[in-house]
Amino acid sequence: MTQDPVETTRPEPLRSYKLRTAGRMGPARRGAMENLLDRFTVPDGEGVLDLRTLFGRTIPVVLEIGFGMGTSTLEMAEADPATGVLAADVHTPGVAALLLGVDRAGIDSVRVLHGDGRELLQHRIAPGSLAGVRVFFPDPWPKPRHHKRRLVDAAFVGLVADRLAPGGTLHCATDWEPYARQMAEVMAAEPRLALEGDGPHPRPDWRPLTPYENRGLARGHVVTDLLARRVDPSA
Question: Which residues fall in a coiled-coil region (predicted)?
């Protein structure tokens, strides 16, 4: 006698972010979620994204995971309209704020995901297709028992390396020094990446100060930028 197969469920992955309550949003932001999200969104689906179709042209594309309220994302996009930006965040007010900013500035090089950027990277981005990945000021999860929730670990860096085109960059920034050391270690240990300068960089001029960063600086925190470049296997 055969037995029915036992149903198994995949364990829920550890989140690298805290889900915050959306809070109240004014009419402009509510309207952005209702009227602009479809216009600028990453389309739903399970297949690999066609980035040329998504942006309407062939351009280098960077993925930004966690953009807060979108102020620095918007500033970088305005300064570099020739680069497409896939901007992902789970926080609804921040998504709405970025949508409003993109619409008001008439920017056509930004596409917004209201969701988990790591999931997007893992399941919908083709290997070797990104010009860059930006992770600015992710949750540091400072307590030792929570370190396993940090976004930038060896598995994440390996995933990024696979999705970057040769010469593409992973750029991380944090104001939490123990996390900066962990970032540097896992980036240096990934054989497909070359850590530029063998360690921390001063903030590049093209990366604007973020509101979160300003708060950290006001508290005396040291900000660390780390950049690693995808090694060209044919070189």
Answer: none
The answer to whether 143 is annotated as binding is: yes
Give every CB contact of residue 52 below 8 A, 6+ residues apart in sequence. Answer: 58
Tell me whether residue 57 is in a domain: yes
Residue 100 three-state SS: helix
Query: Tokens at residue 42, please?
Result: 């990453």
pLDDT in tens, 113-168: 999 999 999 999 999 999 999 999 999 867 877 689 899 999 999 999 999 999 99
Which residues, in sequence order, are bridge partners of residue 11?
none
pTM: 0.88
Chain Cα centroid distance, residue 121: 9
Element spanning 147, H or E: none
Q: How many domains does the chain have?
A: 2
Is 116 marked as binding a ligand?
A: yes
- Which tokens belong to 214? 């300003």
Binding site annotation covers 213? Answer: yes
Under DSSP, the state recorded for 57 is S
Measured CA to CA, the distance from residue 139 to residue 206 in angstroms comes to 22
Does 139 participate in catalysis according to the annotation?
yes
**Claim to verify: residue 146 and residue 212 sit in the same structural domain:** yes
Residues 83 and 104 in one domain: yes
32 contacts 94 by C-beta, under 8 angstroms: no
Catalytic residue among 103, 108, 139, 153: 139
Extended strands (E) in 175-235: 193-195, 224-230
